[in-house]
Amino acid sequence: MDDIIVWGSTREEHDRRLRQVLDKTREVNLKLNKDKCEFGVKSLTFVGDVVSEEGVKPDPRKTSAINNMERPTNKDEVRRFLGMVTYLAKFVPQLSTQSAPLRSLLEQKIEWVWSHEQEQCFLKLKEILTQAPVLRFYDPEKSTRISADASQYGLGAVLLQQHEEQWLPVAYASRALTSAESRPKQQAEPLMTHPVPHRPYYKVGTDLFDWDGKSYIMVTDYFSNFPEVGMLQSTSSKTVISYLKTVFARHGVPCELFSDNGPPFSSGEFAVFAKEWGFKHTMSSPTYPKSNGLAESSVKTVKNLLKKSQTNDGFQKSLLIYRSTPLQNGLSPAQMLMGRRIRSNLPVCEDLLTPKGASRIRKSKEGQKEKQRQLHDRKAKHLPMLKPGDNVRLRDCSTGTWQQTGQVQEEVAPRSYRVQVDSGLLLRRNRVDLQLQQSQRDTVAQEAVQQDTAGSAEPAGSGPDRADHGLTKVQASPPAAGLSRPKRHVQPPKRLIETC
User: Fold this and answer.
1) Gap between the Cα atoms of 486 and 466, Å rounded
2) In this structure, how many other beta carbons lie within 10 angstroms of the beta carbon of residue 437?
3) Residues 210, 302 within the same domain
4) Which domain holds residue 128?
5) Of the four, 11, 113, 247, 344, which is 20 to 30 A from 208 by CA?
6) pLDDT per residue over 114-150, tens digit each?
């Protein structure tokens, strides 16, 4: 705590309030410096201002310091002078306009030239501060009004209150206009809205942007607001076209693509791409990105996600959550594009993840799988299950031979085993690539059976004493005239027939 002011409209009111303050300071053991205390005065200096029963006026010591300042000789001295003047801005009407000639010297591209205009401005500001009006205390019971004005250099305002028949100032305020604000502006035209597409990926917008020294491309669907984001190695037409082909292969070719007038989109190569892939390419006016507003706003959203994500994995998760978050219409971009929600780490009902017609598709796929199973199982049979410790041969997938041997360790999954080969290496193989090795007794018995079978199956007259008794030529009779194979009725597969 620095200064305390106790005031009263009468002597009795002042003394009563002072007694309350002193009692409170004694209660909290707050020490006061007697040499710095002033009691029963008509005016005093408080926070750089002189406060009296008339109102508030600038401290004469501050105005005197400004009045005694020498003419500035460089930009730093101009900046110091304006800083002291700005401290007393509430006493100076239209300060921003009054100080404009001096402020113009502070612009970086302006060469230092102290002309007659700056000299007059310097002297006038000193005069204004010397004759600064006394500001009245604000009274909530009195009539109040604000008077404002503007020029090409700044804005100014004054708060006035009525005292009898006069409107007296309570405070002045002003602000200099920035270079952008001081430039003349064109009258805004009525907004032209893009027609809302009737389906996803009928119309898309695209834009390029840079982030953290890398180039990115954004593709946004006008129907669903679903964003596609990719990092580019370069911003050439060839690279941009390659990425767009990837997006179109995933979602389909749009009827219209909207972009800015940048070099990748205004090239002849891009025009050929649009013609070959069959979409209309519309470009916004140069230097007017607002016409491609959806892509511009999507870029801001993605930049915000990149800013909050420290890694690429974090960005992809953020993009996933954005795509699955409902918009103002209650639907997420993924729902509007795909007809269903997409699963993220946020809880979601299973029914919302299922698109329309999923049951019909599931039944169709189950029927196809059953037909494939029946066709395959005509010539298939179950192989014996293997147990840990069984000796097996492993098929070499490159040569088709069964030379490598090993021992089964465990069944990892149905028809999948982990086998330790003779070299000690553990391999995982499917049952069809493993052949159970027979014991030595089984091998001898099988060879004997094969020899007996081979001896009994030898046809008569086929031994070494066999003699050729001649050859007989048999010729099949030609088919009877007029006979032909019946023609089949070819019916196209149902999967190629579109149904509505």
Assistant:
1) 47
2) 15
3) yes
4) 60-176
5) 344
6) 999 999 999 988 888 877 778 888 889 889 989 888 8
